[in-house]
Each structure stands twice: as structure tokens, then as C-alpha cells.
């Protein structure tokens, strides 16, 4: 279990570092006017993130060794690189979120505009008078043209009698009805194409709101949606910075390396045994091996044969 926790913490620290480094490098390099300037700014970002990873461990070790000057210098440097990284991460998050929100707002604006155009088209269709199909009207007009009145009035250009005027009035009515039918047909085709376009836009839509996350939080808290949008954007960069620093400290510190399962007893340390201090070595040997006749004789011989 201890190894698994260590691997998870180490993996999280590496992910935080990689994402933070990538975001900061992409944002800072985008500020360069030339490829050389972009490469230099990207290198500064990578160096700052590398220092941000190493400095917390350096500070903890300097404090443990009571190297106050080194700890103070490392702390100042850590604050500086965290500030740079936080600003870059916030800029990256703001630009990314703003582009997504702007794209959604543009898409929603297209849908709204197409819906207005469709409503206007339907309103225009309602203003047209009812008419029969074009083919029926054209057939009736062809029948009028074969009438003798058509020749007598020179195509209804010079009606002279009452009957001719009535005939031409009917012809003009049919022509008006034919134009109305053609206009209705054209509006129908245009409406069909507009409905297809609107359905395509609605099908490609990814959400009803440009920023649904900020909108939901704003509605829940009863605040303006701009406030949660700013907080959420900045919080992404804050989480990356905290994760990059704290997870590295946890991965390198004693909190994980000295961790034990609950209930496990500490192992008994091995202590070297101490031999008893005895000025008379032979007396100590007799106590160890036991008294024998041979040893007694040898002891007497060693001392000159008597007391």
C-alpha cells in the first residue's frame, strides 16, 4: 500500500509539472514577435518551472540544516518563479476559455439570426394571397390565349368593348395569381433550405449557453456570471501551481518515506552486547567454563606453586 501511494503522489506531481510547464511555455512563447524571441521566452518558462520544482526541497533541507541565508534566498526565488508561472498559467487559461466562449457565442448568434430570418420568411408567406398551383393557372392562361378575344384585343393591350375589357380583366387576374403562386413556390424553396441550415447549426451546437459552468454557478450563488468565470479561470492556474509545489514536497519528503501501516510495531533495533568488565581474566574464564583440576593446577603453576 505504501508503494502504491508513493507512485500515485509521484505520478500526480509529474502530471502537474508537465501540464504547468506546457501551459506556461505555450503562453509565454506566444508573446514573442519572432521565432527567436518565442524560443527564448519558452526557455525562460521551462527554467522557471524547473526551479519551482527543486526550490521547495532545497528550502526544507536548508531549514533542517539551519542555513538561514540559503533558505531565505531560495524562498525569494520560489516566490518569483511561482508568480511568473501563475501569471502565465492564468493568461493561458483566460485565452483558452475566452476563445471557447467566443466561439460558442458566435455559434449561438448564427442560430438566433437564422431563426429570425425564418420567422420573417414565414411572415412574408402569410401576406401572400392564396393561389392555385402554377401548372393549373398556366393551363388556364393558355386557354385564354386561344380565345378569339385575345386576337381582337391584341393580347389584351387595346380592349375596346365591354366584353373585351371583362376578358382582359380575367386574364390580368390569372397573371396576378400566377405571379403569387411563383412567389409562394420560391418562398417555400427558400424556407426549406433555411430550415435545413438551421437544423445543421442546432445539431452542431455544443450547449445552450456560451459558458454553462459559470452560468450554473452564478445561478446557484445568485451572482453575476462574470465573477465565477474569472474565479474558475484563475483557479485552474492556482491548482497547477499548488500541485506542482506541494506534490513534489510530499513525494520527496519524509511524510511518505517514513509512513507505516496503522498498528505496525516499530522493529526492535539491534544493540551490540557489552562484555562484563573483569580485572582477573582467569577468574572470568573459570566462571565461564567451570572449575577443573587441570585448570587449578595450571593456575597454581602459573603462580610459583603456592600462596
Order of helices and strands: HHHHHHHHHHH
Intertermini distance: 72 Å
* Strand tally: 0
Describe the global form: rod-shaped
| Approximate strand percentage | under 5%
Mean pLDDT: 76
How many helices in DSSP terms? 11
Structurally, how many domains make up the residues?
Answer: 1
Q: Taking Cα atoms only, what radius of gyration do you get, to the nearest Å?
A: 48 Å
Helix share bin = over 70%
Query: Which regions contain 5 or more consecutive residues with pLDDT less than 50?
Result: 295-307
**Structural class of the helices, strands and pairings?**
mainly alpha
* Major sheet details: none
Account of the 3D structure:
With 307 residues, the chain is an all-alpha fold. The protein has one domain. It is 78% helix and 0% strand. Helix 2 crosses helix 3 (68-127), helix 3 runs antiparallel to helix 6 and helix 4 runs antiparallel to helix 6. The chain is rod-shaped. The two termini are 72 Å apart. 16% of the residues are buried.
Looking at this protein, list some descriptive labels.
mainly alpha; rod-shaped; 0% strand; 307 residues; single chain
Task: Set down the secondary structure blueprint.
Layout: H1 2-30, H2 35-64, H3 68-127, H4 134-145, H5 148-152, H6 162-204, H7 212-221, H8 226-252, H9 254-257, H10 281-289, H11 293-302
Helix pairs in contact: 1-2, 1-3, 1-8, 2-3, 2-8, 3-6, 3-8, 4-6, 7-8
Amino acid at each position: 500500500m505504501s508503494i502504491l501511494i508513493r507512485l500515485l503522489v509521484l505520478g500526480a506531481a509529474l502530471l502537474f509539472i508537465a501540464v504547468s510547464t506546457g501551459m506556461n511555455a505555450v503562453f509565454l512563447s506566444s508573446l514573442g514577435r519572432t521565432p527567436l524571441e518565442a524560443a527564448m521566452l519558452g526557455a525562460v518558462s521551462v527554467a522557471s518551472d524547473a526551479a519551482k520544482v527543486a526550490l521547495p526541497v532545497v528550502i526544507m533541507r536548508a531549514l533542517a540544516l539551519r542555513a538561514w541565508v540559503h533558505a531565505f534566498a531560495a524562498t525569494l526565488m520560489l516566490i518569483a518563479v511561482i508568480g511568473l508561472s501563475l501569471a502565465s498559467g492564468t493568461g493561458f487559461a483566460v485565452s483558452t476559455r475566452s476563445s471557447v466562449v467566443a466561439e460558442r457565442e458566435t455559434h449561438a448568434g448564427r442560430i438566433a439570426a437564422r431563426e429570425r430570418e425564418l420567422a420573417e420568411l414565414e411572415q412574408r408567406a402569410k401576406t401572400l394571397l392564396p393561389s392555385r398551383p402554377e401548372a393549373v393557372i398556366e393551363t388556364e392562361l393558355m386557354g385564354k390565349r386561344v380565345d378569339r378575344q385575345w386576337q381582337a384585343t391584341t393580347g389584351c393591350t387595346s380592349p375596346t368593348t365591354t366584353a373585351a375589357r371583362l376578358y382582359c380583366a380575367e386574364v390580368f387576374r390569372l397573371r396576378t395569381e400566377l405571379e403569387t403562386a411563383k412567389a409562394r413556390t420560391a418562398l417555400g424553396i427558400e424556407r426549406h433550405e433555411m430550415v435545413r441550415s438551421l437544423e445543421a447549426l442546432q445539431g452542431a451546437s455544443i450547449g445552450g449557453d456560451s459558458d454553462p459552468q459559470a452560468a450554473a454557478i452564478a445561478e446557484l450563488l445568485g451572482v453575476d456570471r462574470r465573477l465565477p468565470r474569472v474565479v474558475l479561470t484563475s483557479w485552474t492556474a492556482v491548482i497547477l501551481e499548488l500541485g506542482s509545489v506541494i506534490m513534489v514536497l510530499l513525494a520527496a519528503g519524509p511524510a511518505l518515506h517514513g509512513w507505516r501501516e496503522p498498528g505496525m510495531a516499530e522493529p526492535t533495533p539491534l544493540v551490540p552486547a557489552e562484555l562484563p568488565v573483569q580485572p582477573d581474566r582467569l577468574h572470568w574464564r573459570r566462571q565461564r567454563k567451570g572449575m577443573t583440576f587441570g585448570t587449578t593446577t595450571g593456575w597454581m603453576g602459573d603462580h610459583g606453586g603456592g600462596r
